[in-house]
Amino acid sequence: MALVRRRSIFRLYCFSISVFACLRIFINCEPDPAPPSLTPINRDLYHSSGDLMEQISNLVHRHPDKLTTETIKTGNKGYNAELNVVTYCRNRKDGDDRTKFRILLSFGQHGRELITSELALRILSILSEEQFLSNMDPTSSNSVLDKLVIKVVPMENMNGRKLVEDGDLCERRNGRGVDLNRNWSVDWGKKEKDYDPHEENPGTAPFSEPESQMMRKLAISFDPHIWVNVHSGMEALFMPYDHKNTTPDGLPSERMRRLLEELNKVHCQKRCMIGSGGGSVGYLAHGTATDYMFDVVRVPMAFTFEIYGDAETSSKDCFKMFNPVDHATFNRVLNDWSAAFFAIFRMAPHQLDEIQAKGSLSGADKGISIDEYLDGYLIERTQRYEKKKEVLDFGMQEIRTYFRLFLLSSVLLMFMFCSRISKNKYSRPIASVMSP
Ligand SMILES: [Zn+2]
Predict the structure, then answer these.
(1) 3-state class of 82 per DSSP?
(2) What angle (nearest 5°) sits at the alpha carbon of residue 288, between those of residues 224 and 49?
(3) Which of 51, 133, 233, 238 has the least CB density, counted as fewest CB within 10 Å?
(4) In sequence order, what are the beta bridge partners of 107?
(5) Active-site residues (predicted)?
(6) What separation in Å is there between the alpha carbon of 260 and the centre of ligand 1?
């Protein structure tokens, strides 16, 4: 996100540098100074990816009554990726209870947005009751949390994150240069006028990337009621759609907007931008995870949160632009957004009651396996092709009918033309006889 602003700032930056360089040459000054220094990763505040995952693994081992973890691995064409998924469920044997409210949260889909994975760790620490939010009553919050199953993906793009840690501080794509938030199938591959492959490369096909394939499987099997894709680069609370400048119609849209307005008021001090990703951010994004979750997985509430951005920073200085660099801001961001997520956890069961009262989208009604999904998809695709074939056949029949009519009318015209000529030929002498 925040691509357009980043690009325009970058263009302005390049332009200013060139003008400045030209002026220097013109007035024959000393050689160009060194480029402005870029802010390095603040290792006092941020964990390395290895350390962060180890912290999470230790947390899971200390709280086996609440947390479990699994590692999924897959790969193709010599590229391998793995996904760590942490499941929070206060009574572990209820982990597969389909009557509970299910929440799926993903962090670190873009490599350079380190702060998001720190937020994942903070949320898991609070869920384990090793850290606490101010103004949080543990008893009432436990009764709320009893009704939930929360799955957290702390670092979706581990390979991309490693590139950032190795010094490529502006990298947002995965380990082979694909933007994981453009690799999903809804409106995949469409390119805007200012398309930049260094930022938004959608891959060779929808779900070409192992990371997206694993996330899709996870989402379809878990079948969440809420999905949040957590990013940084600005402060915003987005709902579908990213690929068009509108929000969905009716109740789902209303329900999502109400939740976001409440979060903005209480936890974002009304600073956050709200609305459809495509309508609010200034550019359309095609093939995003949130659009897929809403349109295909049919998650009733699907969001993208942007938790921090430094609008004053040069777009080249990526670490500073996407991540807080001082202790106070770092803690403020983690506290504010942990509180926002716990507000979602608190409001979620009420949303579930509302959804179940409407008799739709309950776990039992909605749960499908990936095989069922793929079967459904293939059937739908076959039907779609058959429908296209039908339309084509109908069109051909129409063309044939029109062609026959055209031939018939041509023959009729020819006949009329010929009969007219022959009539004139025979009537002319009579006319001359009649003339004076
Ligand atoms: Zn992002």
Answers:
(1) strand
(2) 80
(3) 51
(4) 230
(5) 306 (proton donor/acceptor)
(6) 19
The whole-number average pLDDT for the span 3-16 is 46
* CA atoms of 189 and 172, how far apart (whole Å): 18
Dihedral over Cα of 161, 235, 292, 362: its sign: positive
**Distance in Å, CA 32 to ligand 1 centroid:** 34
- Residue 335 belongs to some domain of the structure: yes
Give the whole-angstrom CA distance, residue 80 versus residue 82.
7
Please state, in angstroms and as integers, the Cα–Cα distance from residue 202 to each residue in 93, 185, 287, following that order.
39, 10, 7
**306 part of the active site:** yes
- Which range of residues forms the domain containing residue 209? 38-367
For residue 53, the domain's CATH number is: 3.40.630.10
In a domain, 298, yes or no: yes
Residue 124 domain-assigned (yes or no): yes
- Amino acid letter for position 88: Y
* Number of domains forming the structure of the chain: 1
Query: Rounded to an integer, what distance in angstroms lies between the CA atom of residue 239 and that of residue 257?
Result: 8
DSSP assignment string, 288-311: -HHHHHHHTS--SEEEEEEEE--T
**336 vs 305: CA distance, rounded Å:** 13
180-235, pLDDT tens digit by residue? 999 999 999 999 888 888 899 999 999 999 999 999 999 999 999 999 999 999 99
Listing DSSP states for 38-51 in one string gives PPPP-TTTSPPHHH
Q: Can you tell me which residue has the tokens 């095609």?
A: 286
Expressed in angstroms and rounded, the spacing between residue 132 Cα and the centre of ligand 1 is 27
Parallel, antiparallel, or unpaired for β 226-231 and 273-276? unpaired
Spatial separation of the C-alpha atoms in residues 313 and 179, rounded to whole Å: 23
Task: Tell me how far CA of residue 379 lies from CA of 108, 208, 350, 371, 421, in angstroms.
Answer: 35, 22, 36, 12, 63
3-class secondary-structure state, position 189? coil
Residue 31 maps to a domain: no
**In a 3-state reduction of DSSP, which class is residue 275?**
strand
User: pLDDT (tens digit, 9 = 90+) per residue, 101-133?
Assistant: 999 999 999 999 999 999 999 999 999 999 999
Catalytic residue among 209, 306, 386, 398: 306
- Do residues 112 and 164 lie in contact, with contact meaning Cβ atoms separated by under 8 Å? yes
pTM: 0.76
